[in-house]
Amino acid sequence: MSTSGLVPVNPVSWTALLGAALFSCLLTLGLWSLPALAQEAAPGQAVAPAATCQLPDFAPGEILVGMASRVEGAALQSDAGSLPVLEILSLSTGEGTAALADTAAHAYRLQVPVGQEWAVIQQLQRQPDVYFATPNWLVFAADSRQSQPEVPYPVDDPLYAGEQWYLQRLNASRAWQAIFSETHASLTSVQVAVIDTGVDYSHPDLVGRLLAGRNYISPTLSAADLDGHGTHVAGLIAATTHNGKGIAGLAPNALIDPRKVLQTDACGRLSGTIANVAQAIRDATDAGARVINLSLDTETDHPVLRSAVQYAWGKGVLLVAAAGNQGTAVRYPAAYPEVMAVAATDYFDRREYYSNTGLAVEIAAPGGDTNSAIRSTWSSQVVAASKCALGYMVVDGGAYCRASGTSMATGLVSGVAALAWGLRPGLTAADVRAILNESAWPLDGTAEQVGSGRLDAHAAVRRTLLPDLLADTSQLRHLAPSDAAPISVTLHIENPSAISIPWEASVSADPHWLAIARPGGVPTTTGTLTGTVQYGQPLPLTVVLSPTGLSPGIYVGTLRLRGTRPDGARVSRTVEARLTVYAAGTGSQVYLPLVAGGQDAAAGVSFRWETPLPGTRTVYGLTDNSSVGISLPFSLTLRSRTYQTARLYSNGVVSLGEELPGVGLPNGCLINRTAPPHAIYGWWADLDPGAGGTVSTFSAAADKFVIEYERVPAAVGSVPPGASAYLVTFQVVLHRNGAVGLNYREAPGWLAGNWPRVTVGVTTLDGRFRGQVACVDEFYRLGTVPGPRQSYLIQPEELY
Length: 800
Known about the structure:
Elements: E1 6-7, H1 11-27, E2 58-67, E3 75-78, E4 81-89, E5 106-111, H2 117-125, E6 130-137, H3 160-163, H4 165-169, H5 172-182, E7 190-196, E8 214-215, H6 229-238, E9 254-260, E10 263-264, E11 270-271, H7 274-286, E12 291-294, H8 303-314, E13 318-322, E14 339-345, E15 361-366, E16 374-378, E17 390-395, E18 398-403, H9 406-423, H10 429-438, H11 447-450, H12 457-464, E19 470-471, E20 477-481, E21 487-494, E22 501-508, E23 514-517, E24 528-533, E25 539-545, E26 553-564, E27 570-582, E28 618-620, E29 627-638, E30 641-649, E31 653-656, E32 679-684, E33 694-701, E34 704-713, E35 727-735, E36 740-746, E37 758-764, E38 769-776, E39 781-783, E40 790-794
Parallel strand pairs: 7-9, 7-12, 8-9, 12-13, 13-14, 14-15, 20-27
Antiparallel strand pairs: 1-26, 2-5, 2-6, 3-4, 4-5, 10-11, 16-18, 17-18, 19-21, 21-25, 22-24, 22-26, 23-25, 26-27, 28-33, 29-30, 30-31, 31-32, 32-37, 33-34, 34-35, 35-36, 36-40, 37-38, 38-39
Helix pairs in contact: 5-12, 6-9, 7-8, 9-10, 9-12, 10-12
């Protein structure tokens, strides 16, 4: 069956319907459209197959009927039997006259058996006094692809927000969000051998995450941890996330295989033998480990250890080892080429002073120090709590401790490796190793100090996800009169993966009213468009729907998106377009989108514009690349950081509590090293208040302080070639309770076929917690740039 073309029910009835019955009853909703039927087709109706949802586009068991005669009693008697009247509908124009005086005088909402709607409609349409009989079509909000803040991944582990700074530096929550909420991917279990001091089998944060393991020191005993180090490393990898207990672990799919080779010796050191370590590597490999974590080191390059490492690598195991904490050369087994050598970084992404260096260093990860140690699980079986040097505590029945070193950094790398492998079990150890290195966050320092950079869980996940083609189809439903000009809609083709995928787009079945084009290009109904797309670099496709000259009715067409993954696998997606055409001049121009008033459904607030209390406005004479410091009228607390002062920058940034020399330009996506780590990015772009507009502050209420940029122009040379400079008007609203409002009254749209370079969002706690609404920079386009009459209200807990 064709999926395009006219979908007639009854041309006369459509005109009457659109011009009369629904005019009044749906005008009160502010929006209406007539989508095609998704479940039961009308006679002669051509409908595209439903892509995902099989719900009908009308209210089940209800029809709308317009008649010349009045229904007496509580039901309409018809060939189908008694049809109860649910509601009498008005056809009045509001001036006391009938909307269609020469046709229907009465309209009703009737109850019919579910599933028999179209059969009853056909029967009623044959009756001479019935002027229209239609389904009670559903109404859909017109989605204008409004921008929205990032949605936080829920993490309710009590120590996460305040103690696990290292996970926030690694973008762990964004990695989980990409897997579980955005792509709804599934993870397979990945066995991770932790060759260490054993593990606390009773720890509540590790229940269900542990295998039996083995004790190489006392083979008749279990691998119970009497020292804490192994439990600490295991928790970094696999502590249960979002269970309301203790901490969050990186890999919810990891199963820990504890191999006990270390214990406290007479000198108080955690030590073991090369023979036991080598045997544990071999045994763990044979037992199915895909990742082996070696948070240990030795000065000795021993053939027994080397051969075990080569054995495991040859069997496809990824070995991850600590570079060492002596501040000298990388030690073994990390120094072997088959092993990923891990260096340690501090709270501010700098190499730790104790972290060993050398050509073997492959990647860095948070290792912490005395001032910012790594909090993780600890063994309750440790003989003395003093073995936890920093911050021993018991939470929900589990022990936790702070420790620092390349041991901790190594556990974090193993955790992200398990996460990546769980997404794509078919990868090799070399593949996973490359993903971790290629996705690392660049750091200051040489390769011998920090390798490829700091581990980034989110970037690693994006590089692991299989490429796909995604498109927001919500805008491809339109209502228009038959004499309307063509409607152009931008369809954004996206890919959740950082792996690029080539695509091609074409119109299926060649309906003459549906065409596609590149922005600014010539529309085609028969040609094929091509391109490539990857995460953070979506491609816009212009879809043109042309109602001109069409008869009243519903038209359904499809676009075909096809792509080819690097392994040759094909990806195919169908995008449906629906165009409802009504007769010109029937008064159906009541199409009032719910979003027309600036409603931002995602953020949960309607557009608002704050006005100053009398005598509270202060205007600042900012010029290009300038700033001014101010005192806030109340203490502002975001997460656990309190701010009393702020600095306003000419380029649309409000830095909190800091006296910085300036905010770097051009803008960049959050968080980056050129931007203040405690700031509100109302419209971070190259603006020039010295060329026009004003920057001011005022109090809108006792608990609301507003920073307003009014009609500030973009700096000369900051817009794309061929585009005119734009003006922007927005407000940053600070609420005493810590919420941040962003209001946009004037903002540019497309500039010469592109979005303006801009970043919008909030950061706090040294950049660990942030919420980004949108970013368009040199490399990425994330989110959607705010448009006119949009508002957001970001709560502190929504920064993650």
